[in-house]
């Protein structure tokens, strides 16, 4: 008499458990938008599109990349900051848009409090390079050259307030150098003018510079990673050469609105890390010189938090502005 009731209850519990598991396994969005706050073709856009096939397959949803550009990445970053925390809108953010710009612009939303870190996607070191006509084969020789002729030398960057610009300002501050910053509208024009000898030097991501360094028109003096760059293994790091403050990488990661539930953040982290570990994506990242290591959301959040005071202090000390 009571056995059927017991069996019925057990079956109900099993069905409930299975439905709960299925509900968790099924991602809650039919379409995921990855917002790239920079134009098509740039590193953020390329990395966002690199994630699409893997995430789409693993989550069984459509994944698209949407470029929302302008204001040094602030428009796209703010769009995601203000979005619903439902896991449907992601940001492919970087060090400039998430950590640096908050010190240079009056933002409607502070990315540090309005966004939640999910997973690091890439970390690309910078390279200090000079036009081949510059008579310096090392960082020490370059510094001596600039000190010998104050005011003669300048350095290019893709824009005021960029990582590239602030590294140049750090070199000026640390070594008490008299040189001028020349801002451009993007890395492309800055690289072109250093190649042509219009500007003698610059900092740039290793991923962008390897083809040009092979041309012989420019020369790499040092990179800024904690270890030597995969794509420039013969070039010493600034740290190796005795400049410990120059351990800087142009990092990129996925962020979601701060109110996104932890379960979704963890699910996204797991699938993003799986995509990054796939053979095709891992090979592409290696060619870019990315120093990748799998991180949990908590580890990535701790890394971002550690970056905040470094850039705050450098912007303040250098007097850098967005103009």
TrEMBL record:
Q: Does the keyword Zinc apply?
A: no
One Pfam family per UniProt: TctC
Segments crossing the lipid bilayer: none
InterPro entries annotated for this entry? BUG (IPR005064), Bug_dom1 (IPR042100)
List the SUPFAM superfamilies hit by this protein, alphabetically: Periplasmic binding protein-like II (SSF53850)
Keywords in alphabetical order, please. Answer: Receptor, Signal
- Source domain of life: Bacteria
User: Which residues are the signal sequence here?
Assistant: 1-25
The similarity annotation says: Belongs to the UPF0065 (bug) family.
- State what protein this is by name: Tricarboxylate-binding receptor
Q: What is the protein's species of origin?
A: Polynucleobacter campilacus
Taxonomy, top ranks, is: Bacteria, Pseudomonadati, Pseudomonadota, Betaproteobacteria, Burkholderiales
